[in-house]
Amino acid sequence: MTTGSSRGTGNETNYVMQKFARGVLNTNNVDCCARVCHGPSVAGLQLALGNGAMSNSISDIENSKCLLVFGYNCADSHPIVARRVIKARENGAKNHRLRPAPYRNRAHRRSSSAAQ
């Protein structure tokens, strides 16, 4: 038996799913599409930066002066990161978002961005 999740599933939901799979179903067969769809980004980061993971710590985000975000809504996917982004904006950081889809969570938005 195995369990799997989609790209639209947030970290918290994935955490609950893997706890259910391991604790109730007694299986370690937990998979996610990120293993396949993020493969190219891991390879690209490895070649460009020498590491296939993020190049800064999450705690660095709130001390940033400028945030440039491509096609990502951290409020949906990574709420802890979203808190750090909000804190950075409260500290005066510029937040530029490049998204092909409308941004749904505008609670912390100050003004329209030229990048939007």
Relevant terms:
single chain, 116 residues, alpha/beta, 2 domains, two-stranded parallel sheet, 5 helices, globular
Low-confidence stretches: none
Could you tell me how far the N terminus lies from the C terminus, measured between alpha carbons in angstroms? 43 Å
Order of helices and strands: EHEHHEHHE
Molecular shape: globular
Q: What structural class should be given to the helix and strand makeup?
A: alpha/beta
Q: Radius of gyration over alpha carbons?
A: 17 Å
Number of helices: 5
Strand content: 5-15%
Tally of structural domains: 2
Helix content: 25-40%
Main sheet record: 2 strands, parallel
Q: What is the number of strand segments?
A: 4
Mean pLDDT: 80
Strand neighbour order, sheet with most strands: 1-2
Protein name: Formate dehydrogenase H, selenopolypeptide subunit
GO molecular function: formate dehydrogenase (NAD+) activity; NADH dehydrogenase activity
Keywords: Oxidoreductase
EC number: 1.17.1.9
